[in-house]
Automatic annotation (TrEMBL):
Pathway: Carbohydrate metabolism; pentose and glucuronate interconversion. The keyword Nuclease does not apply. It is an enzyme of class 4 (lyase). This is D-mannonate dehydratase. Catalyzes the dehydration of D-mannonate. Has no detectable activity with a panel of 70 other acid sugars (in vitro).
Length: 403
C-alpha cells in the first residue's frame, strides 16, 4: 500500500493567487489538489499546513473515502468554505495518486466516460449590448455551443461579469475591497434587450446563459425569468442568495426559465432542499469548494434522483488542477449538464502544464494517468502571493448589498 510520507502547500500568483497541495508517497508517486479560496487563500493554506498535513503522514493513500470521513467527521467543526476547500485538496490529490498508480486517467476510475466530451460555455461580455453580442459571435465562431451573456448596465459605472479583457476576467482586483454601486431596477431593464439582440444575432442553435450573481430578491428574479422566457435561456445563475433555500420556491412559482445555483456551496446540505423540492435545474457546486471529487459525486448522485443536472463552476479562481478534476468528474457522471470554462492566462498555464484540451465547444481531460496536470515548482516560486480582495456592493443609497 502507498503510504503518505510528506505533503506541502504551494502558494503562487501567476496573475492571480492559487493554493496547491502536493502529497507524496513512499513509492515516489505524488498527487496534486487545488485549495484555492478566492480572496481567502491563506486561510486554507494555514488550515492545511497547521491542522491537516500532520494528520496525513503515514496513512494509506488508497483509502480515499476513509480519509475524507476522517477529515470531515473527525474535525468536529464541520463544513464551511475553508474546511471543505482543504478537504477537497486532499481528496483531489489522492485521486491523482490513485490514477497514477493504476496507470489510468481519473475518469476511468470513476466508472469510465458517459460521453465523448464535455460541453463548456464561454463568457461573452461588453460595456454595451452591442459589444457583448459581438463578443458572443466571436465565441460562436470558435465552436462554442453555449455562451454566457453579461453586459454593462446603463447608469452604473461597473457591472459584474464585464471585464477589461475580452477573455480574462479576474474580479479580485485590489489590495483592499473595491466598492461598487448597484441598482436592481436599472439592471432589470437592461437584461431582456440583451437577450433579444443576442437571439437575433446568434440564432437558436446556441445555448444562452446569464449570471445574476445573487443580486435580486426572489420576486424580482421571478419577474426577470418570466421576461426572458421568449428567448429560452439555458439557465439563470445565482438568482438570489441561497442561504434560505426556500427562496427558490417563490421564483419557481413565477417562471419556467431554468435555474442554476451553487458555486459558493460547500456541502450537500447547502442544496438538499433545493434538489429535493426540484427548485433548481442545475447544481453548480465545484470540486475545490465542495469537498473534492468524492463529495461532488455524492451531490451529483443525489441530484440525479430529482432530474437535476450538474453545471460546475469553472472560473479562473480555480487552478488548472481543479479544472482537470472537474472535467474527469463531468465526463463520468450521467446527469452532467454543462461546464463553465474561463481560459487561464499563459503565465498560469506555464505553471500548471496540463493534458486537457478544447475543440468544437467541448473539452476532454485527456488520458494521462491521474488528473493529467503538473506544477512547475521553480516557476511557481517566482510568483509571490499578492493580496487581492473581491469587490463589495452598495446600493445607490449607500447601504450594503450582495456582491
Amino acid at each position: 500500500m502507498p503510504r503518505i510520507t510528506s505533503a506541502k502547500v504551494i502558494v503562487t500568483c501567476p496573475g492571480r493567487n492559487f493554493v496547491t497541495l502536493k502529497i507524496e508517497t513512499d513509492d515516489d508517486v505524488y498527487g496534486l489538489g487545488d485549495a484555492t479560496l478566492n480572496g481567502r487563500e491563506l486561510s486554507v493554506a494555514s488550515y492545511l499546513t497547521d491542522h491537516v498535513i500532520p494528520c496525513l503522514i503515514g496513512r494509506d493513500a488508497h483509502r480515499i473515502e476513509d480519509i475524507w470521513q476522517y477529515l470531515y467527521k473527525g474535525a468536529y467543526w464541520r463544513r464551511g468554505p475553508v474546511t471543505m476547500s482543504a478537504i477537497a485538496a486532499v481528496d483531489t490529490a489522492l485521486w491523482d495518486i490513485k490514477g497514477k498508480i493504476a496507470g489510468l486517467p481519473v475518469y476511468q476510475l470513476l466508472g469510465g466516460a458517459c460521453r465523448d466530451g464535455v460541453m463548456v460555455y464561454g463568457h461573452a461580455n461588453g460595456k454595451t449590448i452591442e459589444e457583448t453580442v459581438e463578443n458572443a459571435l466571436h465565441y460562436q465562431q470558435q465552436g462554442y455551443k453555449a455562451i454566457r451573456l453579461q453586459s454593462g448596465v446603463p447608469g452604473l459605472a461597473s457591472t459584474y461579469g464585464v471585464s477589461k479583457d475580452r477573455y480574462f476576467y479576474e474580479p479580485a482586483d485590489a489590495d483592499l475591497p473595491t466598492e461598487n454601486l448597484w441598482s436592481s431596477e436599472k439592471y432589470l431593464r437592461s437584461v431582456p434587450p440583451l437577450f433579444e439582440k443576442a437571439r437575433e444575432a446568434l440564432g437558436w442553435d446556441v445555448h444562452l446563459l446569464h449570471d445574476i450573481h445573487h443580486r435580486l430578491t426572489p420576486i424580482e428574479a421571478g419577474r426577470l425569468g418570466k421576461d426572458l422566457e421568449p428567448y429560452r435561456p439555458f439557465w439563470l445563475e445565482d438568482a438570489t442568495p441561497a442561504e434560505n433555500q426556500a427562496n427558490f420556491r417563490l421564483i419557481r412559482q413565477h417562471t419556467t426559465s431554468p435555474l442554476a445555483v451553487g458555486e459558493i456551496f460547500n456541502s450537500i446540505w447547502d442544496c438538499k432542499q433545493l434538489i429535493e423540492e426540484q427548485l433548481i435545474d442545475y447544481i453548480r457546486a465545484t470540486v475545490v469548494h465542495a469537498g473534492g471529487i468524492t463529495h461532488l459525486r455524492r451531490i451529483a448522485g443525489f441530484a440525479d434522483l430529482y432530474n437535476v443536472r450538474t453545471g460546475c463552476h469553472g472560473a479562473t479562481d480555480l487552478s488548472p488542477i481543479c479544472m482537470a478534476a472537474a472535467l474527469h468528474f463531468d465526463l463520468s457522471v450521467s446527469n452532467f449538464g454543462v461546464q463553465e470554462y474561463m481560459r487561464h492566462t499563459a503565465e498560469t498555464d506555464a505553471v500548471f502544464p496540463h493534458a486537457y484540451s478544447f475543440a468544437d465547444g467541448m473539452m476532454h481531460p485527456g488520458d494521462a494517468p491521474g488528473l493529467g496536470v503538473e506544477i512547475d515548482e521553480d516557476l511557481a516560486a517566482k510568483y509571490e502571493y499578492k493580496r487581492a480582495y473581491l469587490p463589495v456592493n452598495r446600493l445607490e443609497d449607500g447601504s450594503m448589498w450582495h456582491w
